[in-house]
Amino acid sequence: MSSDPLVIFTPSGKRGRFPKGTPVLTAARQLGVDLDSVCGGRGICSKCQVSPGYGQFSKHGVTVAPDALSDWNAVEERYDEKRGLKEGRRLGCQATVQGDVVIDVPPESQVHKQVVRKRAEAREIVLNPSVKLFYVEVTEPDMHEPSGDLERLRTALAEQWELEKVTADLHILQMMQPVLRKGAWKVTVAVHLGDQENAARIMNIWPGYYEGTVYGLAVDLGSTTIAAHLCDLQTGEVMASSGVMNPQIRFGEDLMSRVSYSMMNPDGAQEMTRAVREGMSTLFTQIATEGNVAPDLIVDAVFVCNPVMHHLLLGIDPFELGQAPFALATSGALRLRAEDLDLNIHPSARVYLLPCIAGHVGADAAAVALSEAPEKSNDLMLVVDVGTNAEILLGNKEKVLACSSPTGPAFEGAQISSGQRAAPGAIERVEIDPETKVARFKVIGCDLWSDEEGFEEAVASTGITGICGSGIIEMVAEMRIHGIVDAPGLIGSAEQTGSASVFADGRTNSYLVYDGTEKGGPKITVTNRDIREIQMAKAALYSGARLLMDKFGIDKVDRVVLAGAFGAHISPKHAMVLGMIPDAPLEKVTSAGNAAGTGARIALLNTDARAEIEATVRAIHKIETAVEPRFQEHFVNASAIPNAVEPFPILNSLVALPDVTFNTGGGGTGGAGGERGGRRRRRKAT
């Protein structure tokens, strides 16, 4: 094995060993990492900025020493003096590899920008925001009746609008007197109406009648992406929606990797808190610019996030979430100020964090419950928020159960040999010809299929760069439908499958999707290890759902709702062929889009919904998969494609999956679970 340093790039997950002294930009190019550069490595353009991570990364099996990269050189010093480098950033063309290192490529350094698919879903929402505008006429000061301007403003609010005991922060006092006099004692006041923990409070003040409005943010803080919707609090209109990659990815793609990083590194939790707050500031600046809104007009915000992100946003070490009994610092809703979280919006803006349901079922799952309302459904509804940590709800008017399942990042293209996150050029749709068994595909940014006229010209600007999550799901499902992969997950040989796209790859076989090497592009394949990664992810997802079904005492559900930005792009048929979700009529499998973001918007625009979701969360029964013995049994069964024991009658009526077995080694470990598909005996429920 080579003793050269190991270089790992995030968020792509690509890695390789390089001799000491190799420039980071060179390593990135050789691995096909999406790192920009237009100046030929002369340190002029700054496009190749990277953020190295230091400390122990247990997920990657490396400890990064402080001297893993070369010291700053004269080129970097000069660039920093003239134009400035963000703290911790290096120029990839100047920094050289000296030891094992984990290097994050920030979004602005990527040629193909990440597509953050968390748009605002169209939804009717009752408008009752926590901040409203009030026009008042204030009594002028009188030497015979001395009182402060604030006191007379409070009196006007009480008499004219029945707003009692309104308070004000120092910055309001600092601006109030000239505003009152400019408006001839007639002013418009933005007031946060308060809640059970806080009195009503003046947020802003304008002379005369203010014809503008105030705004709020609904924020979905995910482990992979941070998405926000900027909303007009008077009309409910979404003014702008935007998203960025969560910069914490460089500390680990999945949540437990980040918990591990905080355990292994003394300042790890604080480092991740700083990173996510910086990412938040970037996003808020971006969305305010897109919406043409001054940041100090953003006076309210609602956050939804999983428990680990919840703790790291708040500056709480997630150590306890890394071990049983997975205790939260608090599971209740929180009411804070923007300045508590270093947010670059109005300094007195209020921040509401939805309650968490359990140690690994967070406020994002609560937001999904608020959006989809399973507790109000007559049908038995299974809601699956697909992500690196899938949150699952099952319920109806009778009761609602919830659990989480660690699917990992494979569904987002990570840990897949040709995988990548959603960006222009990534394969997102796949079909395999039943006769030739050759794949055709669509890429993000182009409406044509790869075998249609004009495709090559249409993708010339982006290229064909890899496979994103929805693409790999369809790819593996199509390979199973057309007999290229057997039920245990083994790719057959070219002779066994009748496909010239299959080729020997070491001790196993791989499938060629696209070969762009003649034009300097990548060779995109699906390997048996890729199949295994998808099997593990989908088995975790299905097992969580099946465990809730056990607890409910049922074998089928009435409806399946796929939530989350990724869930919106999953083909129901292909998801069922994989065995990601239980057998159900395809017309009953629907997408809710970014349901967590919708729940956040509901809580932002209707304060009554906050009390509603707090009551709903208290009534949800939480199931902890880590201590449930049947979870592992379901996991083993669900590793087969679609499942080793579940019959899937509805799916079988729609798709005839080939009865093939490619493990001819007489009991070898050719696929998931190490057994032939369909021969596992059903165990009786205990």
Topology diagram in text:
Elements: E1 6-10, E2 15-17, H1 24-31, E3 49-53, E4 55-57, E5 62-64, H2 74-82, E6 90-91, E7 101-104, E8 131-137, H3 149-161, E9 167-168, H4 170-182, E10 186-192, E11 201-207, E12 215-221, E13 225-232, E14 238-245, H5 255-264, H6 268-290, E15 298-305, H7 307-314, E16 334-337, E17 350-353, H8 363-372, E18 381-385, E19 390-395, E20 400-405, E21 426-432, E22 439-443, H9 455-458, E23 466-467, H10 469-481, H11 494-497, E24 502-505, E25 508-515, E26 523-526, H12 528-552, E27 559-563, H13 572-578, E28 589-593, H14 595-605, H15 608-619, E29 621-622, H16 629-638, H17 649-654
Helix pairs in contact: 5-6, 8-14, 8-15, 10-13, 12-16
Structure overview:
This is ASKHA domain-containing protein. By secondary structure, the protein is α/β, with parallel strands linked by helices. The protein contains 17 helices and 29 strands. The strands form seven sheets. The protein has a six-stranded mixed sheet, with helices on both faces. A six-stranded mixed sheet has the order 28-27-18-19-20-29, sandwiched between helices. A five-stranded mixed sheet has the order 2-1-7-3-6, with helices on one face. β24 and β25 form a beta hairpin. α8 packs across α14 (595-605), α8 packs across α15 (608-619) and α12 (528-552) packs across α16. The longest helix is centred in the last third of the chain and has 25 residues, at 528-552. It is globular. It starts with 5 loop residues before the first strand and ends in a 32-residue tail after the last helix. The model is unreliable at 666-686 (pLDDT under 50).
